[in-house]
Each structure stands twice: as C-alpha cells, then as structure tokens.
Amino acid sequence: MARMGSKKHLKRLAAPAFWPILRKEYKWVVKPIPGPHPIERCLPLLIIVRDVLGYAETAREARRIIAEGKIKVDGKIRRNYKFPVGLMDVIEIVPTNEFFRLVPHPVKFMTLVRISEEEARFKLCRIENKTIVKGGHVQLNLHDGRNVLVKVRDPTNPVEDKYKTMGTLKLSIPEQEILEYIPFEKGKLAVTIGGRNVGRIGKILEIQQGIGRKRTLVTLEDLEGNKFQTTLDKIFIVGSDKPLVTLSEGVGG
Fold first, then answer.
1. What are phi and psi of 66, to 5 degrees?
2. Which pTM value belongs to this model?
3. CA proximity to 231, closest of 205, 192, 200, 203
C-alpha cells in the first residue's frame, strides 16, 4: 500500500484499495484516528455512513448524523466521524433500529452484512496473545484492542485458564462478558481474513506448524468440498458446526 502521508491527512489515491470511494473525484479523504484497528484493516465511520450505507450525500451530512449520537459501534455511541470500524464490529443505526456487522468478503475484502438485533448483542474476537498480570490473573489480548481479564484463584494451578491464542471468544457487547470459547483446532470452522482466499469459509483439516504464524500453513475444506491453504495469521475461528455470525449477503458499497 502507498505511503499514508502526513499524520492528520490522507489522499484518496493512498487510501486502502477496498474503501468504496471515488479516487479521482476529490483529492482528500477522511483518515481514521488511532484506535482498535489499523488503517489498512478498517473503515472510517464517515465512509460507512455516507458511502456504504448511503445515509448521507456529503461528508457534512454524515458528520452531523454521527455527532448527534445516532450511530453505535459495539453497543457504544461513537461521535467521532474518524472512528475506525474493523473486522467483526457491530454497527447499530439507532433511529431505524438496524444492525450490521463488518465481515471478510471475497471481492470487497470487507463488507457490511445486515444482522438481527439478537445477533447484534455479541461479537467474535480472536485471541492474539496472553499476559500474566498482578495476582497471577490472565489477561487475554484480542484482535480489536480489547483486554479481557480471567480471574485465577490459585496462580500455581490456574484451572480457569482454558483459553489459547488464535482461539475465538464470543463476547457480549457492550458488557464484554465471555459467552463462549471456540479453540483453534482441527474440525473447527474458520473464515479467511486476508490473502487470495479472503472471505472463504471452511473446516480446518490440517495444521502444518512453522516458525511463527506467517510460516504455519492451515489446510481447510469449504462447503463445496474444495481444499485450500492459507497461513495461520489469516485464520479466524467462527464456530464448531456452523458459523456463530452471519458472514454473507453484503450491503452497500
């Protein structure tokens, strides 16, 4: 991807390729603020409101809608039009009671899918790493910048620590309570979040361990019985027998 330029401004030609914007109509585009997702894997809230969902025709109209508190991300009102929305985030349009989730897509890289109010009460988060904090408790560091603390009664025998990296947590939002844990292992369903197979869903058949996530190969089988491979860093567990979230039927963009 091209250089992002200054810290506060972003030219349209340098924006991530999957952003649904016209590259040569105007020179500048809104640049996301530092947040839970990196710029190459997110969409600014303004672009979602204006260009994806079509609730506004201009940036000024979109900024007004957002500033009035009509948009929630993961159950919290976000008034900053530069807020970065990323993988598995839930968007709620308060006046119309509509709900959407940002998921991987084979063509668009990431897209919004319409979901029910019941599904909008939770999100899936991948465990990136774990740290031991004061008192011997375990802190789970997730893909969207969240940190979830797992209380341990006996640090010498942490039976509560059943969570492993690359596994997925089903979290309630905005309470952030753990509802379910799906480990990363053979037989689980996963969606590819990057590379040439982005957006493909399949069951994990084999894991060829390498040095680091980018050198570990994962073999999957999709719903049609076709096998494909990708690296571990591009794997996101979404369920055991069936996906826990809606992953198709994109809208807008």
1. -70, -40
2. 0.91
3. 192
80-91 pLDDT, tens digit per residue, is 999 999 999 999
User: What's the pLDDT tens digit per position in 155-180?
Assistant: 888 888 899 999 999 999 999 999 99
Q: Report the distance separating Cα 219 and Cα 229, nearest Å.
A: 5
Residue type, 109: F
Q: In this structure, are residues 188 and 204 in contact, taking their beta carbons and an 8 Å threshold?
A: yes
State how far the Cα of 64 lies from the Cα of 228, in Å rounded to an integer.
45
Beta partners for 149? 139
Degrees to nearest 5, angle at CA 241 with 221 and 250:
75
Are the C-beta atoms of residues 165 and 127 closer than 8 Å to each other? yes
Give the span between the Cα atoms of 110 and 107, in whole angstroms: 8
Question: Where would I find the H helices in the chain?
Answer: 45-47, 59-67
- By three-state DSSP, how is residue 7 classified? coil
Ranges of H-type helices in 120-250: none
